[in-house]
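Note to self: the last two entries modelled the partners one at a time, which told us nothing about the interface. This time every component goes in together.
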Amino acid sequence: MNRETLRGIGGVVIFLAAWEAAVSTKLVDFDYLPAPSVIAVALVGMARDGEVFGEIVHTLRAALVGWLISIVIGGVAGAALGLSPAARKYCLATVEALRPLPGIAFVPVEILVFGFSLQTELVVIVIPTVWPILVNTMGGFAAIPSRLHDVVRSFRMSPMAATLTIFAPATAPAILVGLRLSMTLALIMAIAVEMIGNPEGLGYAVVREAAALRPDVMFAYVFIIGVLGIVLNALLIGAAKLVLPGEFKRPRAEWSRP
Amino acid sequence: MIRRLTQFMPPVRGFAPLVVLLVGWEVIQRGPSPNFPRPSLWWTAIVNLASSGALQAAVEATLWTFVAGLALGCAAGFALGLLIGTSVTVRQWSSMLLEFLRALPPPVTIPIAVLIAGYSPSMKIAVIAITASWPVLLNTVTGVANIRGLLFDVARSLRLTRVESLWTIVIPATIPDFLLGVRVALSIAIITALLVEMFTGLPGIGVLMILGQRAYDSAQVFGLLAIVGVLAYVLGLIFAIAEGVVLLRWPPRHTAVS
Amino acid sequence: MQTIFDLENVALSLPVTGGVRAILRDVNFSVAQGEILTIVGASGTGKTSLLRLLAGLNRQTSGTLNFRGTPIDGPQDGVAIVFQDYTNALLQWRTVGNNVALGLPKKLDRAARAPRIADTLRLVGLERNAGDYPWQLSGGLQQRVQIARALVASPSVLLMDEPFAALDAMTKATLQDELLRVRDKTNASIVFITHDIEEAVYLGNRVAVLAGSPGAITRIFAIDIPFPRHQVTTRELPAFLRLRHDIHDAIGRLA
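The predicted structure of the combined assembly is written out below.
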């Protein structure tokens, strides 16, 4: 473990210690801000109860299913638009017009149509998460140099062979960016919907505990949500490293538009 | 003037799918429909809202909290980003903490803020500011990290003081990345504003949508959805133009996927 | 004639992953007021590191390095540096005029600033480009901006790290002659790093050969060709060709 990692951990320790001290000495005294030790106790209690696992599964399932649906829709549409300049001419303005629409604005509509249910959650997740995949896939395919198309034609490759050996590696980096962005977004939307549209899962749990004035449990749930996000992202990057080992040596700008 | 504006937009014929969708919907949905009313009914509902003044009040409430929160968040994100970016020590110590906070879905901040600070417009602005500051902070840190070491040699050889270096070199060099972060922060701020409104009932378009949903007035909900879409699009356009103007003096940059 | 730089037994080691690496060993030479000393050597011999020592950007590991008789402890007043990478050494978001302004001495009167910038721009032939941005200009012009920024403070010493390496042959020739003109006008001392032997002979009063790894000054050649020099005729002189030959040999024979 090198010095950098140690310092990073040290920073977390200092932060928690300062928080603990500030609350115990009443330096920072909000009714509903518990000390880390209290939160840790609540966390242990939750693990023992077991309910939290069901909630984790619910949120995870909604986010992942929504993400997979978005991949299919966004990937196909993105590839089609990317490969056809004509299609882009007739669709790009619409994409640009619909993309900024915040997914959260669809919640009331979905509640009207589907009530408080998983469908609502899924629709609200899919609508905004489609865009990063679509846009980045489109970008990846549109950026394939015409030379590569010529190569495919001169070798008379079948579509399957062409896709596997030429198009996939050429577009993979862009698609990967889209996948990461949309997965983060899927989790965010799942939590958001569970807060107002579907009383199940981790998002609802946070709201429930806040309403019941149990801040220690609420913060414990917040912690779990954060860890979930990190784990999902790490898994995705790990899987990507397996498929595209060379990709991660190159430095690139990360935070492009969602 | 129109021509100069349209350079920020893709070809207008790209709106075709959207137009087809709306016109088709209008034509197909001849009779009354509880869940999918035709677009002309949305218009009627909106006009109703406008005549009672409720629409303007809601739009105003959403917009001004959005602007205030975004401005605050960008300023805080930039300042913190500079602090963290310019000091290797600070960056290392805070790295893990930042990674965790970054993975935390923004909606989670809302119940925490409500619990600690109660229901008020200032709480709403604070929440928007906090969630919007993240992309700005992260991109600013990247921007600082990307400043070529040579520029620091130049600063030293010109015997600039630390403050002069910061003002003449570090801050201007970070502006393009900062703006990239603001673009992301913009969409996050819109989502957060609406979510806070839906969750807390604080005044704004979100509340109007929930009220419409509870009254089973789908035309109103769809109409408001369209308005949100237009607002989001226009805000994005305004930002793109402003960004274009600011970045005139920078070398042309490879922008994100479009 | 005053001695500007005086180096005795200077050595430099830099930390690398897993230890230190010796970059320079036992460097000895001096630079006199008003002379152009060109330092020539192959890549990897530590030329840039040597210049950074003279510039006060790095400190030597051992040995003495004096500027006008006193040890160097950082970038000195009156010393200006021109880097090879002009794109990243200029502030691309500032106009040419404002870039040059960065080099102005701090104590300068507000009223004297604009005329000084204008004069310097005229000196390097950029009087019409004051309002342009560096990224709008060609490589040769951008390098002139950097030179102008260095000259605007009327430095007594100019340190230049392969400033013309990235430019095409014709631009290089033009800038070489301009440098000689500037030196005549200002009587500045110039330490000029290059890997181009012909450039070293053409420009220098003396040529120092940096060779070996870690690098050391193995030979110093006196260039007995009179000024003013001419791109075509000077390069045909027997003395020029002889020097070029000898320096080539000196570099080839690794110490």
